[in-house]
Amino acid sequence: LADLGRIAPSTVPVLVRGETGTGKELIARAVHELSGRRGGFVPVNCGALPRALIESELFGYRRGAFSGARDDREGLVRRADGGTLFLDEIAELPEESQVALLRVLQEGEVRPIGAADALRVDVRVVAATHQDLPARIVAGRFREDLYARLAGFQVALPPLRDRREDVGALVAAILPRLDDAGVVTFHGAAARALLAYPYP
Hints:
The protein is an alpha/beta fold. The chain has 9 helices and 7 strands; from the N terminus they run αβαβααβαβββααβαα.
């Protein structure tokens, strides 16, 4: 985490690996906050984008580019211009979209669907996955050149079961958020149960 804090102000892309629930998006937001970038933080769940709409959602489109395109749309990459684009579950991105994203990372430009010219963009990319990307590369399911562009700095987040010392800090952060919680105390058995839980 100390290394991550030092790398945050740079433009180096960051790849965050870890199981579901380890805080990958929180780390991405922290990188953005520490980066000093003037633009916003734009999260994109690559696994939730409808396959047929991925490129129009990411890169935008021009009015009339396809049926139903009644207005220009800037797309998520351009919305992150000057800021951070967080690509969650990057392993879920189909190969054809991986190629288009690679162009954005290599050239620093995006071409909306139906546009004649590409537009310059300045985005810092933080990607996250719970999957083994090198294994997906070997299986032909993820582009090695895209991986090289995303993995400038990698951080692996251990699951809570491997960092039980954080349980107390998490409880202390969560309790004040509860409405009408009053004063909460934990019996010894409850505290032991929290520490012994396997956190699957």
